[in-house]
Amino acid sequence: xxxxxxxxxxxxxxxxxxxxxxxxxxxxxxxxxxxxxxxxxxxxxxxxxxxxxxxxxxxxxxxxxxxxxxxxxxxxxxxxxxxxxxxxxxxxxxxxxxxxxxxxxxxxxxxxxxxxxxxxxxxxxxxxxxxxxxxxxxxxxxxxxxxxxxxxxxxxxxxxxxxxxxxxxxxxxxxxxxxxxxxxxxxxxxxxxxxxxxxxxxxxxxxxxxxxxxxxxxxxxxxxxxxxxxxxxxxxxxxxxxxxxxxxxxxxxxxxxxxxxxxxxxxxxxxxxxxxxxxxxxxxxxxxxxxxxxxxxxxxxxxxxxxxxxxxxxxxxxxxxxxxxxxxxxxxxxxxxxxxxxxxxxxxxxxxxxxxxxxxxxxxx
Amino acid sequence: xxxxxxxxxxxxxxxxxxxxxxxxxxxxxxxxxxxxxxxxxxxxxxxxxxxxxxxxxxxxxxxxxxxxxxxxxxxxxxxxxxxxxxxxxxxxxxxxxxxxxxxxxxxxxxxxxxxxxxxxxxxxxxxxxxxxxxxxxxxxxxxxxxxxxxxxxxxxxxxxxxxxxxxxxxxxxxxxxxxxxxxxxxxxxxxxxxxxxxxxxxxxxxxxxxxxxxxxxxxxxxxxxxxxxxxxxxxxxxxxxxxxxxxxxxxxxxxxxxxxxxxxxxxxxxxxxxxxxxxxxxxxxxxxxxxxxxxxxxxxxxxxxxxxxxxxxxxxxxxxxxxxxxxxxxxxxxxxxxxxxxxxxxxxxxxxxxxxxxxxxxxxxxxxxxxxxxxxxxxxxxxxxxxxxxxxxxxxxxxxxxxxxxxxxxxxxxxxxxxxxxxxxxxxx
Lengths: 365, 429
Known about the structure:
The complex is a heterodimer.
Chain A: H1 7-14, H2 19-23, H3 28-37, H4 44-58, H5 62-69, E1 73-78, H6 80-83, H7 87-105, E2 112-118, H8 120-123, H9 129-143, E3 151-162, E4 165-179, E5 195-201, H10 203-217, H11 219-224, H12 237-245, E6 256-260, H13 273-280, E7 286-293, E8 319-323, H14 332-339, H15 341-348, E9 353-355, E10 361-363
Parallel strand pairs in A: 1-2
Antiparallel strand pairs in A: 2-5, 3-4, 4-5, 6-7, 7-8, 9-10
Chain B: H1 3-14, H2 22-32, H3 34-43, H4 51-69, E1 71-75, E2 81-86, E3 91-95, H5 99-109, E4 113-115, E5 125-126, H6 129-136, H7 142-154, E6 158-162, H8 164-169, H9 175-190, E7 194-197, H10 207-210, E8 213-217, E9 221-223, E10 229-231, E11 236-242, E12 247-255, H11 267-270, E13 274-275, E14 281-283, E15 300-302, E16 307-311, E17 317-321, E18 326-331, E19 337-343, H12 345-351, E20 372-376, H13 377-385, H14 394-404, E21 412-416
Parallel strand pairs in B: 6-12, 6-14
Antiparallel strand pairs in B: 1-2, 2-3, 7-8, 7-13, 8-11, 9-10, 11-12, 15-16, 16-19, 17-18, 18-19, 20-21
């Protein structure tokens, strides 16, 4: 136990406090959550509850908010006790919670997992090489790989009972870096209180679980969708994904935004505007294939987050290679599936509030 | 031959991998028939199957458990060999030239990897029952695993503190002692290598220490008087002493027990049994602990630890236990004596009528008597020798000479006449 590798411990020692943070204190919501997270008297469960509460109220991802409100997020909390252990000990702790997440997910109880390292020293650290090295080390301990600016994935399984048969499916789950350094910076939509985190969220797993549940509860819905291939019944989540990305408004500090439809080669008809309006509503004029942003939302560890000189939005590169989906959706079935989203949301508690970064808010559906 | 054996054989023959050694054969099997690989790993083969097939099944099965328990790959005994060590104690030999391929394979069977495809996976991919079983582990363990995680989550942390009197003493003690508290003691408590229950200080030692806790750990760095960190001394462990009320009163580097990593030397003599704390611990030290200036004319009495700390110089040092009443501080490297700690001060003073310290006895204190008594540390040191007649006196002589060097007067400490009233005890369960 005394032997082993201690890169995490060494890298935390190398972190320098962020002088910018003295001028730009944490937001009130982050500050309030951190008071509890950094209190050594609180149990892990109390810390998880505080974090879940923050995610339900203050994070921009609609899926994440919805899951947090329903208390369906799975967590791996790495406290100061864990961070003082060897890397092998940290890896084991992550794997124990990862296993628990996967086992819950196979029955559809959860679709998302957050690994969060709670440490005041990490939360107050200056973005830079040392912080990047630490982020990569955590990623390595979790996933065995840690290249920056690449798409790294985990996997989630689901068992679907269907008339005495059990169908089993697996989804690739994107892994995204979040940290407290994002609070007040251009990438504030990837901020999280307490330190540094990786968030795994399978929209496909969630969409399939919800649609199966909704069909079990509502025989009429099941009847209506009987002829549709079951694996197509997941695209109802796409309109919500578009709402999460949102529209770029004046003064907005969004890191990602919707692009006018027609901006990309994939934006071909069909579907017609009428069909799109039926499922996307006000967002029909925007591309359902790609969106734009200052960073790649699929990449696990975006290197620009760690560039201490990159903090003005004007200095950021605009990217247009951000895809909503693996597939180009255009069949009637795809759009029928999108149309059932509201019915499913109603039964699954999917109505959530979207807070714009400017402070304004609107309801998501 | 059972159906899995037939399937595996067929897949291996199709890919021409039948004659390969276990690792390449298994990876070839996975590439050509994933389901056969998962069935082989989960269900194995009959005892009658040929040796190659049994070896393949054994490796596949071990991979299933290795992936769950976590692992690391390290260089092996020769350049052509590497070693896969699992957290659960498995040790698998790997051909060194295959390590990159094996790493990728192990990640892939665990559902991890780098993707070149952008966008979210909405649809997913069908998988088999065996693949799900391989990836999720045996269902019979799920509930117990869950309960263990829940217990960890709901456990109340054990928050240790330092008595304000002991914090105040830091103002005149060597600065490295303060840095040790802030950096090494805190880390030791967070992630101990071992925790003992009960400090064996012999007869007449305070009960709150007999029920106290001793945290031992291996912090990565040690700290000098300027607060600069250095690599931790080799073959040493950091030891943090806690009374039964949860107050830390002493912390030192101590030599490690040979052949027992993370354990201090002579631990069976010094401490009770190792315990498994069901709660995590943290040491809370106020952020404003002042950095004082070392004063060799001052010693400190810790009422919590019932011990006197006296330093002759402020060089960073480790603690060397001489007996249940005396520990000596020795400089790292040279092992020169830099100070000492006399333990069981109340008992020593009460025992030694010749230095007229009997007034420490609770029963004899009248309402008008002074509540404290000033005692010279040399007197306490010499009195402590009485209980250890078999000890060579040279160490005492060296310390006494150092205390009187340059015509100095040895420092005095103030000992309260009344025994501290016991407070609420910490619970380790």
